[in-house]
Amino acid sequence: MKGRRALRRTAGTLVLLLCSACGSDSTPAPGEPITVQLNVRGMHCGGCVAAITAEAREVDGVESIDVSLERNAATLRVRDEPTATEAIRAMESLGYRVTRTAPHGDELAPPAKSVPPTSGSG
Question: Is the model's pTM score more than 0.85?
Answer without folding.
Answer: no
